[in-house]
Amino acid sequence: MCARKLKEGRPVPDDVKFAEVAAPNDLSALWMPFTNNRAFKQAPKLFAAAKDMHYVTPDGRRVLDATAGLWCVNAGHARPKIVAAIQRQAAELDYAPSFQLGHPLAFEVALRLRSQILPAGMDQVFFSNSGSEAADTALKIALAYQRAIGQGQRTRLIGRERAYHGVGFGGISVGGMGPNRRAYGPLLPGAGHIRATHDPAQAFTRGQPERGADLANDLERLVTVHGDTIAAVIVEPVAGSTGVLPPPKGYLERLRAICDAQGILLIFDEVITGFGRLGAATAAERFAVTPDIMVLAKGVTNAAVPMGATAVKAKIYDAVVDSAAPGIELFHGYTYSGHPLACAAALATLETYAEEDLFARARALEPRLEDAAHGLKGSPNVIDIRNLGLTAAIELAPRDGAVGARGAEVFTRCFEAGVLVRATADTIALSPPLIITEAQIGEAVETLGQAIAATA
Ligand SMILES: Cc1ncc(COP(=O)(O)O)c(C=O)c1O
After folding, report:
1. Average pLDDT value for residue range 227-244
2. In testing the pocket of ligand 1, which one of 129, 165, 174, 310 has its CB within 8 Å of the most ligand atoms?
3. Which of 29, 195, 314, 444 could form a disulfide with 66 if both were Cys (CB 3.0 to 4.6 A apart)?
């Protein structure tokens, strides 16, 4: 192990030690996910180390992480408590089977989620390994619940346009991103979609748009078509991957009321919004709307070990478990459900969030990020800016016939200037770790502004 000098002369913090990492000279064997493989392999962008707010590239360049990785490293990188917990656990109990056997940490993490993160009444947690698995688990539990209460005709799953619920067949069936679905056939039968909440007429709104709560009535429209065959509706409280779309004021409340009136389960996919992103433990807490089922992942372990979690109201667990014949109640689970390393990481992560009061910190920083992001209004090609919690999106007009090209160029310019942002088509999203400083918010947005200004 050896510490490195940085090319730019800014030293890597003393406590960062990382092995000399040779950039690989043959990239051909890896098929990269959600990546333009051909372009990447021509001009690879690699990270070799990370600490707190920064990545370090193999050639020793520091990159400010303004996206918390993929919206997941909420407490910042390589936090000591989390690192130590994973190291300890790997030596103590590396793995325990999760079917008909258990280990103490999994029960402890579920209890900690119940007491520290979940809204009152959401009492049970089912573990998986990713947001995609947690979303598909939620959909399956919804179907199992409806069956358990004598509503077995309720088999339809409803999502929303512009939604992302991961890449399982359930998730892409209710997801609303065309390219993610196109190649994969008919998907789940009976899935439907309500309209997206984004309204270009309300561009440059700070926080939640004033108008649009009535878009939730789309669910009632589907009930008039499908009657009592809808099992559940799943939404991201704030759509993340399609460009930070905060819900119109009153929208989630209206959706909750319609679900209650119609016997439909409400699922919040909080894979991005959970664990402080909105300045509260969950979006449910921030908006004071409690779903029946909640999908969690990413920030649960600060991304240090993969983990997904599906939380349910007690009535759902009770109905499925109590109505089952003696034996296994839910025929579902993963070899790595509640993996010991993930559980150790989760406990240390939850402690870090609490000790450093990071959710409150995110809430306190929200106006800083909001002001900085909206300061880019008037920059070339900027057609909308949206924000909520510690997340913001700057939407650029696409080039004629080349959707995504401008966003990709801005992303690369930022990367080369030492700031990691996220580009989805032509929308640039910021979702920094909750430990970011005000000065670093300024640095990230200034760099982004310069990249936008330099991009035709
Ligand atoms: C809202 C939402 N749900 C599900 C997922 C899928 O998570 P994973 O990539 O861990 O499968 C994501 C990932 O970004 C997400 O944003």
Report:
1. 97
2. 165
3. 444
What band does 6 get if pLDDT is binned at 50, 70 and 90?
very low
Band (pLDDT 50/70/90 cuts) for residue 24 is confident
Query: In terms of residues, how long is the chain?
Result: 456
Query: In the prediction, which pLDDT does 7 show?
Result: 40
Q: Are strands 265-269 and 230-235 parallel, antiparallel or unpaired?
A: parallel
Q: Which two tokens stand for residue 200?
A: 């270009």
Q: How far is CA 139 from CA 97, 167, 268, 300, in A?
A: 24, 13, 11, 20
Name the pTM for this structure. 0.95
Extract the tokens encoding 238: 């704030």
3-state secondary structure the chain: CECCCCCCCCCCCCCCCECCCCCCCCCCCCCCCCCCHHHHHHCCCCCCEEEECEEECCCCCEEEECCHHHHCCCCCECCHHHHHHHHHHHHHCCCCCCCCCCCHHHHHHHHHHHHHHCCCCEEEEEEECCHHHHHHHHHHHHHHHHHHCCCCCCCEEEEECCCCCCCCHHHHHHCCCHHHHHHHCCCCCCCEEECCCCCHHHCCCCCCCCCCHHHHHHHHHHHHHHHHHEEEEEECCCECCCCCECCCCCHHHHHHHHHHHHCCEEEEECCCCCCCCCCCCCHHHHHCCCCCEEEECHHHHCCCCCCEEEEEEHHHHHHHHHHCCCCCCCCCCCCCCCCHHHHHHHHHHHHHHHHCCHHHHHHHHHHHHHHHHHCCCCCCCEEEEEEECCEEEEEECCECCECCHHHHHHHHHHHHCCEECEEECCEEEECCCCCCCHHHHHHHHHHHHHHHHHCC
Distance in Å, CA 307 to ligand 1 centroid: 11
Residue 176 has pLDDT above 50, yes or no: yes
Q: Compute the average pLDDT of residues 222-245.
A: 97
What is the rounded CA–CA span in Å between residue 411 and residue 397? 15
Taking CA atoms only, the protein residue closest to ligand 1 atom 3 is: 165
Structure confidence by residue, pLDDT tens digits, 102-129: 999 999 999 999 999 999 999 999 999 9
Residue 271 Cα, ligand 1 centroid: separation in angstroms? 6
